Amino acid sequence: MEVTQQASIKRVYNNNVVLAIEADATEVVLLGKGIGFQRRPGESVDTSMADQRFVADGSYRATQVAGLLSDAPLDQIALAQTITQLGHATLGLEPRQSLMIPVLDHLTFAVRRAQEGTHIDFPLRWEVAQLYPAEAALGRQVVTLVSDTLGVRLQEDEWVAFALHFVNQQWTKGDFSKTVVMTETISRVFLRLAERWGQPIDEDATSAARFVTHLRYVFARAASDEQLHSSHLDVLASVRQVYPEAADAATDIARLIGEAIHRIISTDEISYLALHTGRLYAEMKGPQ
C-alpha cells in the first residue's frame, strides 16, 4: 500500500501553486497543475500530487518562492528548468533549486523588460566575457533559447546576467552580490598586474584563463573562511628568488581580495597565489 505524505495548506496562490506546512513544521511550496484548484487554507494536501516541491533556499524565503512561481507562466517555469539542466550538462552544475529559482526570477523580469521595450545597462559585460568564457557562452545560448521557446527577443546583453548566475552557483553558495564583487575584483587584479608588469595581460590566452580559475578558488575559499593553512613549504620565498615581481604581485593581489571581502588572506593562500602569478609572469615574459 502506497504511503502518502500529507501537508496542511497555508495559502493558495493559484490553481498551480500552494504554500503548505509539513508534519515537521517545514514550509513547502508545491507546484503542480491543478494542485490548488478549489483548495482552502487548513485543508490537507497530498504532497505526492505536486510535480515539484520547493523550500526556503539561499536568498529566497518559501513565501518568495511561492510568489515567484505563481507570477510566472508555466512555460517560463519549464524553460527555467531547461536552463538549469543545460547548466548541468554544459558546466557540471548541480540541477538544484538554488540555480533554478534565481534563473526563473531573472527570466521573468527579462521577458517583461523585452515586452515593454525597456533597456538596462550591464556594466560587467566585458569582464564577464573575458573572465568566464564558458558561462558567457551558455548565457548567450540561453538568450537564443528564450527567443526560440517563448518567441521573445531579449535585450542582447541579458546573457551577462544569466552567465553571472552560473558563476554564482559554482563559487558563492547562493549570494549573487558576492559574484559581482568577485568579478569586479578579478578585473582589478588584471589591471593591477598590467600596471606592475608594464604590459597588458592577454585575457584570451590559456594562461590567463587558468589564472582566473585559481583566483576564483582563492576567492571562494577566503569568502567561506576555508583558507589554506599549515603548509610546510615556503612557496612565496621560492618564487621571490626567481620572479620577485610575481611574488610582490601575489601579496598585492591578496590585499585586493582581502579588502573586497573583508578578510585577511592567509600566508599559505598568498603562497598559492605566488605559485600562479609566477607561472603567469614566466609565460608573459619568456625565459629569464
UniProtKB/TrEMBL annotation:
<dbReference type="InterPro" id="IPR011608">
    <property type="entry name" value="PRD"/>
</dbReference>
<dbReference type="InterPro" id="IPR004341">
    <property type="entry name" value="CAT_RNA-bd_dom"/>
</dbReference>
<dbReference type="GO" id="GO:0006355">
    <property type="term" value="P:regulation of DNA-templated transcription"/>
</dbReference>
<dbReference type="Pfam" id="PF03123">
    <property type="entry name" value="CAT_RBD"/>
</dbReference>
<protein>
    <submittedName>
        <fullName>PRD domain-containing protein</fullName>
    </submittedName>
</protein>
<feature type="domain" description="PRD">
    <location>
        <begin position="71"/>
        <end position="176"/>
    </location>
</feature>
<dbReference type="Pfam" id="PF00874">
    <property type="entry name" value="PRD"/>
</dbReference>
<dbReference type="InterPro" id="IPR050661">
    <property type="entry name" value="BglG_antiterminators"/>
</dbReference>
<feature type="domain" description="PRD">
    <location>
        <begin position="177"/>
        <end position="287"/>
    </location>
</feature>
<keyword id="KW-0677">Repeat</keyword>
<dbReference type="InterPro" id="IPR036650">
    <property type="entry name" value="CAT_RNA-bd_dom_sf"/>
</dbReference>
<dbReference type="InterPro" id="IPR036634">
    <property type="entry name" value="PRD_sf"/>
</dbReference>
<dbReference type="GO" id="GO:0003723">
    <property type="term" value="F:RNA binding"/>
</dbReference>
